[in-house]
Amino acid sequence: MVPRANWKGFLKIAELACPVALYTAASTSERMAFHVLNRETGHRVQRQFVDAETGKAVAPEDQVKGYEIGNGEYVIVEPDEIAAVIPESDKTLAVEAFVACRDIDDVYFDRPYYLAPTTDLAEQAFALVREGMRAKDVAAIARAVLFRRVRTVLIRSYGAGLIATTLNFNYQVRSAKDAFDGIPEIKTKGEMLDLAKHIIDTKRGTFDPKEFKDRYEAALTELVRAKLEGKPIQARKAAPAKKAIDLMEALRQSAGVGTPTRRSAGKRSSGSSSSRDKGPAGKAKSTARKRASSAASHRRKAG
């Protein structure tokens, strides 16, 4: 089934124009949806706008938008006044610049759309744009009036087509400094860093979205199915309380490296390293053994 286009227009680069369409790439339509019901009658509940002071329902024709300028004071804006200032769409994705893909900050990403040609005659021009961007490893910055608003769009090659991602404006993205300002700069090295790198290596994988399961949606589906079948609802078991352990111990347990004992550390340090001591985990083990062995040596001399 051919998807329904959200927008149709032209992708324009200088004097080159190619008829294209945007299709939704991410949708929430498959999520389970609940209606609000009257518990007593089982009927659906309708929402109404009511006057905050009088409590009376306000008819749609009497509802108007307002911008608050003070406590209880508003500037009223009529629908025709809003329509007059909305930019008129020329149905054009006008490319303003090409940027290196490595320079793109994805914190500005908003919503993705698939971008595809709409006619057979457009396919050659479309392929030329796609392959040119792919060869130069660049993305296009374009502007367009989408859904009654001027939007900045990032266009990248994506398989046989292009993907167009609407971007948040700079004022919409909060400064990272506000979130990270209180984080101290801590240098890590030695055994702790070796263990961290080893854990990362053992957990290395590939990006496969099919492996990401929506457990909340699955739980809701099972809940509704159980109620339809008259089965008892199984309450989720509480997670066992975790005991507090220090960072180094947590790293050792995650890497499968036990805390070295005084006796075993001294005994192993006197012999040759086994094949199990190779790699980041082995290096971390070796460091711990050397430290334990040195501490034991100092104690013997002190005695």
Structure description:
- The protein has 303 residues and is of the alpha+beta class.
- Among the domains are: 107 residues, Ku70, Chain: A, Domain 2; 54 residues, no CATH class.
- The chain is 31% helix and 23% strand.
- A 7-stranded mixed barrel has the order 1-2-6-9-8-7-5. Strands 3-4 form a two-stranded antiparallel sheet.
- Helix 4 runs parallel beside helix 6, helix 4 packs antiparallel against helix 8 and helix 7 packs across helix 8.
- The longest helix is centred in the last third of the chain and has 24 residues.
- About 6% of the residues have low confidence.
Brief overview, please?
The chain has 303 residues and is α+β, with helices and mostly antiparallel strands. The chain contains eight helices and nine strands.
Note the topology.
Blueprint: E1 7-13, E2 16-24, E3 65-70, E4 73-77, H1 79-85, E5 92-100, E6 109-117, H2 123-136, E7 138-146, E8 149-158, E9 161-167, H3 176-180, H4 190-202, H5 215-228, H6 247-255, H7 262-269, H8 279-302
Parallel strand pairs: 1-5
Antiparallel strand pairs: 1-2, 2-6, 3-4, 5-7, 6-9, 7-8, 8-9
